[in-house]
Specification:
The protein is α+β, with helices and mostly antiparallel strands. It has 13 helices and 18 strands. The longest helix has 20 residues. The relative contact order is 0.11.
């Protein structure tokens, strides 16, 4: 959720009769699955704030208790200079919870990378060290962020990075046996740790993975698995589970820094740094070494070395910076992932609202790292489109605000093993900037009489287009086939 400026002309608030008291001139600047963020004037202090208003107006007692728990927990950490400050909270006359937060005029790191491309190494190390301090403070207060990504790091008016969007799902209420994440978490798949995609609960180690993925994005100009994210959910999840990280295609990235990020994104949580503080200490030490080396004039031998060709050919034919030739071998990739395990991972997030899996930073068309491990062969695209395309997609509104029910005809079995419902006009390369995976329905239990998915938190009174994509398994290989989108207006 962005609480800084966005491109284009902001849209006015449609429900001005339900404005929180003491706030005026609400202008919508961003909208997510659970809430909408507005730029607003705090009339009591004559300051501009970011006002986050939840969509739901029918929270039960437990949900309200969790909302209050979030407010109390964030109140303990939002004084940290690298966490967005929360000023106030309440419930509108219409029953919708809201938070008033610091308005960060510098936008997001995702927007900065989109404008400028990869950021300088020193700046990325500095940002990483500060975000580690913020995560450490949150973890010590019992808060898991669960959605660290460039889109959720804002730049204050002083240029400081500030971690934002500690959602309701990030706080576990004392005395509750189930994690809130089990019911309401929204993970950005492209930055999610492998164990999260396999159904594990969020941990501090998963936050560390997402932070390392964020720093990788700042250095490379795109997320580690950006290419797969542009193609679809199946190849993206498969590549993350393989833990086959591409080389950062930037010659000025020190080998020690890349090794640290790889360790922080290790497949097994226990192989990552033990805490955000440990990762931050490593980044700080690395930044100090780079600063000292930059202050020392290069010797004649170093100048000669820099004049030599800067690249060599890697084991897979890719171009690799010469100064990194002596780096230790990469951790062996996991064994090839079959359709059963991939669909089990997709099933683990069935019914869970997935955040945008192609984050804003992926729109930057920079150079892509060479792929060092091919994706599993796919079913012929023509065959998939002709035989497996979803049919009979229908969308209907319910009596609940922001809710739609999607149904479709039972697909060809057993080749089609799951169906993903997307919000947007499609999941082709041209539409990935707006497509959002909203639900996954698997068929591992057998055919369904009427396959269906109920989507919550949709924008009320606005036209929403939905697409169905069948996940196809033929000879233990994964492909997908997309149907035509269908549009409706939630009440």
């Amino acid at each position: 959720m962005v609480v800084g400026p966005e491109g284009g002309t902001p849209l006015p608030l449609e429900t001005s009769h339900d404005d929180p008291d003491g706030y005026q001139n609400l202008t919508r600047i961003d909208q997510g699955g659970f809430a909408t963020v507005y730029r607003a004037l705090d009339t009591r202090f004559n300051r501009t704030v970011a006002l986050k208003i939840l969509h739901s107006d029918s929270l039960d007692e437990r949900q309200l208790r969790r909302f209050n728990a979030e407010c109390l927990a964030i109140g303990r950490v939002c004084s940290h200079p690298n966490i967005v400050t929360v000023y106030d909270a309440g419930i509108t006359r219409g029953g919708r919870p809201w938070l008033a937060m610091e308005y960060c005029s510098g936008g997001t790191l995702a927007q900065k990378v989109h404008r400028q491309g990869p950021l300088p190494v020193g700046e990325v190390i500095s940002i990483g060290a500060r975000l580690c301090e913020a995560l450490s403070a949150a973890h010590e207060a019992g808060i898991l962020h669960r959605d660290v990504k460039p889109h959720n790091v804002l730049l204050t008016s002083y240029g400081e990075p500030a971690l934002a969007d500690f959602g309701i799902a990030s706080v576990v209420v004392e005395g509750e046996t189930s994690s809130i994440a089990t019911e309401t978490a929204a993970y950005t798949v492209v930055h999610a740790a492998p164990e999260i995609l396999e159904g594990a609960a969020g941990t501090t180690a998963a936050d560390i993975y997402s932070l390392a993925s964020t720093l990788y994005t700042l250095l490379a100009g795109q997320a580690p698995f950006a290419r797969e994210a542009r193609v679809g959910l199946a190849p993206l999840v498969a590549r993350i589970l393989l833990n086959d990280l591409p080389v950062i295609a930037a010659p000025d990235v020190p080998p020690d820094l890349e090794r640290l990020l790889r360790r922080s994104m290790a497949a097994r949580p226990q192989d990552r740094p033990a805490s955000a503080s440990e990762l931050g200490a490593s980044l700080t030490s690395m930044g100090e070494r780079l600063a000292r080396s930059a202050a020392v004039p290069p010797s004649a031998q170093e100048i000669h070395q820099r004049a030599r060709p800067t690249t060599r050919r890697g084991d897979h034919g890719e171009s690799v910076p010469r100064h990194r030739a002596a780096a230790p071998a990469r951790t062996p990739a996991r064994p090839p992932i079959g359709a059963g395990r991939l669909l089990a991972s997709l099933g683990a997030i069935s019914g869970v609202l997935l955040a945008v899996f192609t984050a804003s930073g992926l729109t930057h068309q920079g150079s892509e790292p060479s792929r060092t491990h091919p994706s599993p062969p796919a079913v012929s695209a023509v065959r998939a489109a002709d035989r497996y395309a979803p049919a009979g997609l229908a969308v209907g509104a319910t009596n609940n605000p922001g809710e739609l029910i999607v149904t479709w005809r039972m697909p060809v079995s057993p080749d089609v093993v799951a169906t993903v419902i997307y919000q947007g006009t499609g999941v082709t390369r041209e539409a990935t900037e707006t497509a959002r995976a909203r639900a996954v329905v698997s068929y591992d239990g057998g055919p369904l009489d009427v396959p269906r998915a109920t989507l919550h938190g949709l924008p009320t009174g606005q036209r929403v287009c939905l697409s169905a994509v069948h996940m196809i398994s033929v000879n233990d290989k994964i492909s997908n086939a997309e149907g035509r989108p269908v549009c409706a207006v939630p009440r």
